[in-house]
Amino acid sequence: MQGTPTTYEITIFAAKAIMSATFSLRPATAADVEAIRSLTRDAYSKWVPLIGREPLPMTADYTEAVRSHRIDLLDSDGALAALIEMIPQADHLLIENVAVSPAHQGRGLGRKLLAHAEQVAASLGHKEIRLYTNKRFAENVQLYLKIGYEIYREEPFKGSFIVHMRKSVG
């Protein structure tokens, strides 16, 4: 029965290799616009049936966003896995978009990018980070609450509500 342990060891090794994919964080460039658009559309497509329209990130102008916002990309073994779009404001850092490829969801990449945004905010001297999301995206709202964000305002938007959230940093 020598073959069984060898197969088992190979299977474990393969599982470890899958779990230890190499991730690297880098700033977006104009060459990334199509990949950003594609990843964002894929990441947000699950919400279309829930709200009856495309969420705003699916229709955003990423050519302009790459020029005027800070977009950091998380690559996995050379392919775009996730992104975070941030807009520095006078007194806080606004997270405009967090998107994770469906193939990489559930691995904590969104949390890693949110933690990265906190570091960016602190490096800019901001004491607060803010974001907003559709109230119907309940799993996102719950995640943000779980990691320390608080709801400070809700407003009607296109037949639903936008939840504005903030977190102290630094």
Please provide a brief summary of the model:
The chain has six helices and seven strands; from the N terminus they run H-E-H-H-H-E-E-E-H-E-H-E-E. The chain is of the alpha+beta class and 170 residues long. A seven-stranded mixed sheet has the order 1-2-3-4-5-7-6, with helices on both faces.
Give an account of the 3D structure.
- The chain has a 7-stranded mixed beta sheet, sandwiched between helices.
- The termini are far apart.
- The radius of gyration is 18 Å and the shape is globular.
- The chain has helices at 3-19, 33-44, 48-51, 62-68, 109-123, 138-146; strands at residues 23-27, 70-76, 79-88, 93-100, 128-134, 150-157, 160-168.
- Mean pLDDT is 86; it is low at 1-19.
- β6 (150-157) and β7 (160-168) form a beta hairpin.
- The chain has 6 helices and 7 strands, in the order αβαααβββαβαββ.
- With 170 residues, it is α+β, with helices and mostly antiparallel strands.
